[in-house]
Amino acid sequence: MTAADPSAPVRTLKGVGPALTEQLGRMGITRLLDLLLHLPLRYQDRSRLIPLGSLVVEQEGLVEGQIVDARLAYGRRRSLVVTLEDGTGFLRLRYFYFSRAQENALRPGNHVRAFGQARLSREGLEMIHPEYRTYPSPPPAPEPELTPIYPTTRGLGQTRLRGLIDQLLSREWPESDGTPYSDLRFLHRPPADASSEEIAEAQARIALDELTAYYLVMRRRQSDRAGIRTLALPQAAHLGRVLLRHLGFRLTAAQRRVTTEVLEDLAQDRPMLRLLQGDVGSGKTVVAAFAAIRAAEHGAQTALMAPTEILAEQHYLNFVAWLEPLGIQVVLLAGSQTAGERKRVVGAIESGEALVAVGTHALFQDQVRFARLALTVVDEQHRFGVHQRMALKDKGTLPHQLVMTATPIPRTLTMALYADMDVSTLDELPAGRQPITTVAVADDRRHEVITRVAAEIEAGRQVYWVCPLIEISDALEAMSVEELEPLLAEGLPGIRIGVLHGRMKSAEKADVMSRFKGGELELLLATTVVEVGVDVPNATLMVIENPERMGLAQLHQLRGRVGRGGHASHCVLLYATPLSETGRQRLSVIRESQDGFQIAEEDLKIRGPGDLMGTRQTGEQQFRIADLRTHAHLIPEVVRRGDTLLAEDPSTAARLLGIWAPADSGHAGV
Ligand code: ADP
Ligand code: MG
After folding, report:
1. Whole-angstrom Cα distance, residue 355 to residue 295?
2. What is the pTM of this model?
3. Per-residue pLDDT tens for 37-59?
4. 545-573, pLDDT tens digit by residue?
5. Which ligand 1 atom lies nearest to the CA of residue 251?
6. Helix, strand, or coil here: 58?
7. 258 with 289: CB under 8 angstroms?
8. N or C, which end of the chain is more exposed by having fewer CB within 10 Å?
9. For ligand 1, is residue 283 a contact (CB within 6 Å)?
10. Is any ligand 1 atom within 6 A of the Cβ of residue 441?
11. How far does residue 326's CA lie from ligand 2's centre (Å)?
């Protein structure tokens, strides 16, 4: 057998037609190699049968037995209840959705093998909707492998994916092209006795390759950028000094230092790519304003992108206040504008009359042509993901870029993830900031918190109340706006409550936000849309529902909405009971620290290497295999190895790039 070609397209596999090609493509899988690199998220142990008599609550596993009873139960909802017996004990399986054919197959006398999780119901242990198969006689012995569970996409089931991967694994792969075939094979089909350590080690070896490739891409981008020329913006009209005088506050030493770093970059004809990280409230916006002023002094334009309309509007108002007195025209591009307004704004950008344009990322995507774009500022870049470095191009030249984030990135991670950027850090908050006291309160004491809110509003302050959901959900036991709104209205009569969530139109959101900012609304009931950057100095109390469900970085961001004015501020973490051990630890980190960098480090520690069966998260994945929670400790090695490869072994470097970043291995992508 000759070795298969890893770069052959997936449609060369048996049974892969246009529809499947499209589904795989949605997951970034186009080559056979991509499919090989598509590793299980976790494994289920279906190699061992659990005797029914020894099954315990919450245990997930494979069971089998003969059906001794099957009947319809009429509780709150009709269900089919099937009782199994295996000589050691009994177990009920319960189905709410079933067809006539299923009802027929699940009849007494037949045998069933099922995989699911045991739960405690009023009548004892049961499995709800386990996967199952029926047999007329006792089933054959189970498969001696762990069952892989793959990340998948709509319309593509586990069985189908497993089948495709089986096809791949049955092939012969090239001997030594740098791809870790034996680790991949092992991770796709680990034997039933594989230990979690063995699995974790194989994952780590592959993650090291992937992270190294990523680091190489970043380093290549950095050197590519060094060869590009852009508009140099040296010191000119000193308009920045005018702003300094009418700003109303003194810059912190950190702001002065960082502003100097940025302005020195801008003076070069090599495009800047600088990450400005600074904790919530450290005053990043004004640094961006000084950069925009520098561009404007040269008659050149700045585009400022924010992740939400609310934030774009807020930046716009700040920039108008700061820059228009200097004669610099600022415009806002917002989704809520009428076609006429939008046309006028776009016209001012295209003519070069507007020197600063503020808007959301989405708005800048649809081809606004700047007359003379010299600088782009991207705020809260973590929202856009690591891979999506935005590069607004102005007729082919690359502008200077300033990227701002309040998500503190542990230093080890910046070394590799941002290896293409220079990093500035605002490590100081403006003087006079009030510390925020944080308390954790069980949600059965919500009424006490409501009393506290009433007092705060009575004293003339404003309050945020944040919850995770918009609507009441059957599936998720978490607080929703829908449930909370009447509760608050009843508990806080006469108080003007505004509601803000992601499903409202942007004009509505902007309206609510500006009424809250103006003090007309006293309480803002919101989902986590207020997480990023919103600035209302008179708000002094932040109540967060279900904090146990949120990430530490998110909690820190939310809390940072208060403590922005001269008044003492508070944050109440209203958690649902019972709280798990990690939940308790996480809340105590937030309670005890107000330092975003420290919180980020703790977060990494708590989530730590974690356990194998289920650590790799679905959700937004930046890497195929590496997971920064698990693999952060590899980073120093990634940097060492990457630097060595660049200096001594460019062909291995090129091979790694070919495997992991085919799009980046050929061209100079900046
Ligand atoms: P972030 O870094 O979170 O984006 P902002 O730029 O929104 O912070 O600044 C937070 C608030 O602090 C704003 O109201 C801003 O005007 C104010 N601010 C910024 N710098 C200073 C300073 N040096 N002294 C006092 N207030 C400041
Ligand atoms: Mg900000």
Report:
1. 8
2. 0.71
3. 999 988 988 888 999 999 998 89
4. 999 988 888 898 899 899 888 889 999 99
5. 23
6. coil
7. no
8. N
9. yes
10. no
11. 22
